[in-house]
Amino acid sequence: MNTFELLKPRPGLRVLISGAAAGIGAAIADAFVQADAQVYICDVDASAVEKAKERNPKLYTGVADVANREQVDQIIDDARARLGGLDVLINNAGIAGPTGDVESIQPHDWERTISTNLNSQYYFLHKAVPLLKETSDCPAIIAMSSVAGRLGYAFRTPYAATKWAIVGLVKSLAIELGPENIRVNAILPGVVQGERMDRVIAARAESTGVSFDEMKEQYLKKISLRRMVTVDDIAAMALFLASPAGYNITGQAISVDGNVEYL
User: Among this protein's residues, is 159 annotated catalytic?
Assistant: First the structure.
C-alpha cells in the first residue's frame, strides 16, 4: 500500500456522527461519504436533517436530542440496523452554552450545556463501544472537544468545563480500550469560520461592551496564523484519524486551530 492509500479510509467504513446536519458535523459527514464510507448522522433539528438528506441522499439519518439517553439508544439501534454494525463513532454534537460571568449563568443553562456536550458523549459510548468491539477493521472513536479544552475561557465556563472533560474522557478511554484495538482521539477545533462563531463573537462582544468587529479582531490576534480555520480543516483531520495512517494514533487531543495562544 502506498502512502497516499494510507491516507484514505477503507471504502464501506461504517460511520456514525452526532450533531451532523450542519456545521462541522455536516462537513465531516460529506467528507466520509466522498471517501465511500457508509454514514449515519443524527441531529436535534429535524428540518436540518431533512435538508442534509436532500443535499446528500447517500446519508442515513435520524433525529434525536443527544441529551436524552433513550433517544440516543434509538439512534444507535437504528444505525446498527442500517449499517450492519459500526467502525467509527464521531461524538460531535454540542452547543455553545451561555456567555456571562459565573454568578449570572443560570443553573438550567449550565445543566443543559453539560447534558448536551458531555453526557451525550457517554450515552453514545455506552451503546456504541460494544459494536466497535465486534469489528476488526481498526475501529475508532473521535470526540469533538475544542481549543477551550486546553485553555481557560472566561465568561464561557460551562462550555470550557465540558471540553476539558472530553479530553480527560478520551485519554482515559484510550487506555481502557487499547487492548481491544479501539483508538480514541479528540479533535480540538479553534476559531471556526461560520454563523455559529459569529454568534459567539456577538455574545462575547455584548457581554464585554465592545463592537462585533473589535471582538472579532481580538479573536484573530490570539491566533498565531491570524486566521480562522474552516469546517473542512476539521473534516480532513477526522478522515486522517479514521484512515490506516492513523493506525497507531490514540489518546491524543489534536488541535486544529492555527495555534490559538490564549482565549
Answer: yes
